Amino acid sequence: NKSNPNNKILYTNENEKSYLDSLKSKYPINFKNSKTQIDKVLSILNWTRSQWEHRGDVSPKRNDAISILDEVKEGGRFPCFAYGYVLASQLKVSGFKSRVIYLKNKDIATSMQGGGHVATEVFIDDLQKWVFVDAQFNIMPFLNNVPLNAVELQNAIRTDFDKLEFRSLGKIDKMTYINFVQPYLFYF
After folding, report:
1. How far is the C-alpha of 68 from the C-alpha of 66, rounded, in Å?
2. What is the pLDDT of residues 89-145, one digit of tens each?
3. Could you tell me the strand order of the sheet in which 129-133 lies?
4. What is the distance between the alpha carbons of residues 43 and 81, in angstroms, rounded to a whole number?
5. How many CB atoms lie within 10 A of CB 181?
6. To 5 degrees, how large is the angle CA 64–CA 68–CA 73?
7. What is the mean pLDDT of residues 12-37?
8. Do the bridges between strand 164-167 and strand 116-124 make them parallel or antiparallel, or are there none, so unpaired?
9. SS3 sequence of the chain
10. Tell me: the pLDDT tens digits for 52-61?
């Protein structure tokens, strides 16, 4: 931090590095055929989505990637936030900065259920920007061949719907996804 040299931003501390090393060893991802950072992220996204089928009414015992994946091995099925945690950790293992993002609809204060969704953003060094990825649906949004962050996705749905595309190593249904995610792109 230039304004105060005593303040430093640490993206990974020693405890997290040890944890990520354990995750990499226990749950490795093969993305050798990935030529670009986008290809690599799409491979990690696809791997994460392929680990279990979504179940929105059950939570893992702990909210960390190794614990979630261990429970999945035993038959556990979990909601969107578990995909977000696992994806964010696997992206970090692969050298990316990542963050879990919480999306909320405009009625979140009074919603009885379903008022939110959890996804991930990853920083793509090649583009110098944050990019939205949703592991529950295995998608990454693009506009004019450029991946979008959550705010850009919100704007593209409104202003460039026809040009908006989604990429994945799995199957994509653009309308199903937009109908699902659009209400949650209100609060970030």
Report:
1. 5
2. 999 999 999 999 999 988 877 776 667 899 999 999 999 999 999 999 999 999 999
3. 97-104, 116-124, 129-133
4. 19
5. 22
6. 150
7. 87
8. unpaired
9. CCCCCCCCCCCCCHHHHHHHHHHHHHCCCCCCCCCCHHHHHHHHHHHHHCCCCCCCCCCCCCCCHHHHHHHHHCCCCCCHHHHHHHHHHHHHHCCCEEEEEEEECCCCCCCCCCCEEEEEEEEECCCCEEEEEECCCCEEEEECCEECCHHHHHHHHHHCCCCEEEECCCCCCHHHHHHHHHHHCCEC
10. 999 988 999 9
Q: Looking at this protein, which amino acid is placed at residue 33?
A: N
Residue with the two structure tokens 């040009």: 163
Mean pLDDT in residue range 27-56: 94
